[in-house]
Amino acid sequence: MTVSALELVSVTKAYGETVAVNAITHNFASGSYSCLLGPSGCGKSSTLRMIAGHEVVTEGDILLGSANITDLPPAKRGTAMMFQNYALFPHLSVVDNVAFSQKMQGVERKTRRARAMELLELVHMEAYSERVPDQLSGGQQQRVALARALVTEPQILLLDEPLSALDPFLRTRMRAELKKLQRELGISFIHVTHSQDEALALADDIIVMNNAVIEQSGAPQQVFNAPTSEFVARFIGGHNVMKTDAGLMAVRTDRVEMARSGESTGAALSATVRDVEFLGSVVNISLDGGATGDLIATLPDSRFFDQPVEIGESVFLSWKAEDAHHLAA
Ligand SMILES: Nc1ncnc2c1ncn2[C@@H]1O[C@H](COP(=O)(O)OP(=O)(O)OP(=O)(O)O)[C@@H](O)[C@H]1O
């Protein structure tokens, strides 16, 4: 199967007066894992639902390869959606849940059950085929929902907060399984999340949304290392946003060097230790940077404990010029 790229061209969604998505343009590369990342209400689910065909596009176009799919019904688009609550039919067995869409297409029973069993094997759920959803754990229900979405052989799988119903341990495990599945199938996954960690761990391409627009997109390392706006620097986490004479700047908290007062450094800033938080492998030191604002220095635990600082102590902070990035306000 050839997998096409998906393109959003100036796509807008308005619900009456509310503009949920405002003229966004983005190219999702074929066979890539993309995460739509942003806070609640930024328009990511509306974007996903328009791609799926569950929501009418107010303006703009959605192109899949050379086809304009903007106005096609969901089943004719080459996309499939996996919902947050999995939306399994409670009275149908696992295998019948997975085979359901083929039944609707008139595929004969034996063929559709065989195909459903193939998909259940793919997600390691073949042993549970005759159970009903209530007899499965959250993680198992999610696997069945995945199999059900994939049975239609979509070019693009759309996932709306697929991991949010799982406990933290299972979430990390399923995250790895989603990524592996996407790699094996070679189709595109577009995954909506408000979790920075999830997006950084999974995505080839992160699309950060805020207030109905795309603030920044790119590879995880690129977005994390060089946020271009204050919003992205704060939302992606791990950054200090500093007020300087040259405007707002971002520096990763783990790129801040800390020296004690009196030591000779090319210090950029003096600051006072406000708090020390031990996080296992690293220690976060909260600092009062005066007019520059509050900062955090993240040190490896061994470095911190070699020369621990006390709350109230004065320190000098510095960083390499290339680690500081100008931010749009
Ligand atoms: N059916 C609807 N009718 C009216 N307004 C809506 C509707 N669906 C969403 N909205 C509004 O559109 C905006 C974007 O909503 P959307 O669900 O796309 O955001 P989101 O980023 O996915 O948020 P969340 O993470 O909370 O699901 C919000 O202001 C929301 O209140």
From TrEMBL:
Q: Where are the transmembrane segments?
A: none
Q: Does the keyword Cytoplasm apply?
A: no
Q: Which GO terms describe its biological process?
A: quaternary ammonium group transport
* Name the UniProt record assigns to this protein: ABC transporter ATP-binding protein
User: Which SUPFAM superfamilies does this one have?
Assistant: MOP-like, P-loop containing nucleoside triphosphate hydrolases
The source organism is Denitrobaculum tricleocarpae
Gene Ontology cellular-component terms for this entry are:
ATP-binding cassette (ABC) transporter complex
Which keywords does this Swiss-Prot/TrEMBL entry list?
A: ATP-binding, Nucleotide-binding, Transport
One Pfam family here: TOBE_2
Q: Boundaries of each ABC transporter domain copy?
A: 6-236
Report a single Gene Ontology molecular function. Answer: ATP hydrolysis activity
Concerning InterPro entries, the annotation shows: AAA+_ATPase, ABC_SmlMolc_Importer, ABC_transporter-like_ATP-bd, ABC_transporter-like_CS, Mo/tungstate-bd_C_term_dom, P-loop_NTPase, Transp-assoc_OB_typ2
